Amino acid sequence: MILEASVAIVGSGMGGATTAYGLAEAGIDCLVIERGDFVKKEDANWSAREIFVNQKYKPDEKWLDEKGKEFTPGVHYIVGGNTKVYGSSLPRFRESDFLEVKHKEGISPAWPFTYQDIEPYYCSAEELYKVHGATGEDPTEPPRSKPFPYPALAHERYISKLAEKLKAAGVRPHANAMGVDLKIDGKCIRCGTCDGFVCKLDAKSDSQSCALEPAMRTGKVRLETNLKITQVIVKNGRVDHLLGVKNGQEVKVVAKKYVLSLGAVNTAALLLKSGSIANSSGLVGKNFMMHNNAHIAAFDIRSKNDVVFQKTLSFSDWYFDGGSGYPLGAVQLIGKVQAIMMKTYATKVPLGILKFIADRSVEFVVMNEDLPTLSNRVEISKNGMIQIYRKAVNTSAHKELMRKTKKVLRKSGFQAIFVQPFDISMNSHQCGTTVAGSDPKNSVVDQYCKTHDLDNLYLIDGGFFPSSAAMNPALTIAAQALRVVDKSDLKLVN
Ligand SMILES: Cc1cc2nc3c(=O)[nH]c(=O)nc-3n(C[C@H](O)[C@H](O)[C@H](O)COP(=O)(O)OP(=O)(O)OC[C@H]3O[C@@H](n4cnc5c(N)ncnc54)[C@H](O)[C@@H]3O)c2cc1C
């Protein structure tokens, strides 16, 4: 089978679907290629057991860690990619995240463009992904040319009380920037199965419902599901075609321009497997980052947590400076954790005890910046598997943020704090593996995600991040996709 289009986009997650949306708006016909299928609307969408214990929507695929040990990666091969299960927390990066910043354990490098360059596209991405938020509460918030398109999600009673306790303990809690369809006449019912789950109501701002489907309704965008791209074929300094497999049959994809949005690890892996193309810098796969993250559960035996939609609050007081001149990171509520979810890591603790804890705990993610390091990298092993080499860096900042967070939570009345550090399998914030920059010697793509080496190849996913910041990545990927469509020659296909 041969498929043809002006632009072929591989991947329907945040990068791919948002690029398709932008191109459709510009009147360009594109083909979105997705290796997975649509997620069915079914009871499993909202079942913690199916999702967290049986890992229903995870692929039957293993990657190798640096010791060659297999693990199940934090990826989802479905229409919408990882955004189908993501937590929809959609903050902007801060102005300084685009500049060189000194951390205790190294340098967070400058991006080839500034916050001001991407700011208008943050506005468009917030509109597209229905971001609800508030200004004037977060001491680190960057300037914005337009207000949030929708007001912040109100805290439930328990979280309002928590906010008061946190303030009394000395930090400044603020509303989370959240992408859900809660606006008037919206579909969101504020249920407890958002973060980590698939939304049965299409009310979570995933890339399928917010970008891909509207793009397809223009008639400009076609979607080919269950087609896995396996090779990029280059001739005379340009991509000539892609090869893939659908239902066991070989498929050839021919386009004028090509966008790879497979996710940071898979895009790098495909380039490496295709003969190490677009890699004159030697940086494809290098500088793999995934944040230094940990989940914590703060437990108060005296107080039941009756919250349903928990993810409405953050505090970022130590984002720029944790007190000793170095940035630390952010602390953000996550969706309410159920006992059965705790069981996946606290395997030896009886479910009854976990339920007792879950009923009286509130859960956060503690997020630090990861720093780019050449030795942290994606490689293809001898038997063709993806292998991730990673040693966590900037861990002293993580420890310090954890120490300060625990202190504030204890002061707020919590008696115990349980910590679950993220391991290599929790690499959902993967980025950095096809870094953007202006010097072809030190980067894989330019500031518009076009590869320095191949004139008709663009890489639009988390891979282009020169640094990881300490904020959730998806809104920045979406904003950059819209910026690339607007500013680059990607849409010049005639
Ligand atoms: C549980 C969870 C919670 C998260 N919460 C948040 C959050 O609250 N906020 C936030 O900002 N981020 C969050 N993230 C991260 C966020 O989802 C990602 O940063 C974002 O989706 C990355 O976009 P992407 O385009 O790089 O990749 P993806 O969205 O993963 O898309 C990649 C796509 O490429 C497809 N693909 C891969 N290989 C091939 C191939 N060979 N051929 C064809 N198609 C292919 C995949 O199937 C997938 O659809 C979360 C992630 C997870 C897993």
Strand content: 15-25%
Q: Which regions have little confidence, pLDDT < 50, spanning 5+ residues?
A: none
Alpha-beta content class? alpha+beta
The ligands found in this model are: flavin-adenine dinucleotide
Q: Mean pLDDT, rounded to whole units? A: 97
What is the CATH topology descriptor?
FAD/NAD(P)-binding domain
Tell me the overall shape.
globular
Helix content: 10-25%
Distance between the termini: 24 Å
The main β sheet shows up as:
7 strands, mixed
The CATH superfamily name is FAD/NAD(P)-binding domain
- What is the CATH architecture term? 3-Layer(bba) Sandwich
Report the count of strand segments.
Answer: 22
Radius of gyration: 22 Å
Number of discrete domains: 1
**Annotation field: number of helices:** 10
Short description:
The protein has 494 residues and is of the alpha+beta class. The chain is 22% helix and 22% strand.
Question: Would you write up a description of this structure?
Answer:
The structure is a single chain. The protein is 22% helix and 22% strand. The chain is an alpha+beta fold. The chain has one domain (2-491): FAD/NAD(P)-binding domain. The strands form six sheets. Strands 1, 2, 11, 12, 13, 14 and 22 form a seven-stranded mixed β-sheet that branches. The longest helix has 17 residues, at 395-411. The protein is globular and about 70 Å long. The model has no long low-confidence stretch (mean pLDDT 97). The structure holds flavin-adenine dinucleotide.
